[in-house]
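Thread: Long-chain fatty acid transport protein 4, structure

OP (GT): Posting the sequence first so everyone is looking at the same thing. Length is 94 residues per the record. Can we get the structure tokens written out before standup tomorrow? I want them in the notebook alongside the other entries.
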Amino acid sequence: MCGIVDTDGSLDLERLVKDMARDLPKYARPVFLRVMDSLDMTGTFKLKKVDLQKEGYDPSIIKDKIYYLDPKSEKYISLSPDEYEKIKTGQIRL
């Protein structure tokens, strides 16, 4: 998963996919994207990674936008609770 701070809503997912395809091998491209308004930091300006790891990618827990990379279309698709369940049960293969 990759966390991206997008405060003004200017993130272009199609361009991001193209740039990653050009610059990164398939195994290095993030399967999940979490688009956030801000990052939680500690008092010493470190990321609160443990909190992010505990939340995982369950859209019922996370209030940020979450996308997953569909391997067939090679596009990031918004992750809904229904799609989350399909991923967990293996109906959607990543």
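GT: Both are above now. Quick notes for whoever picks this up: The radius of gyration is 14 Å. Residues 2-89 form one domain.
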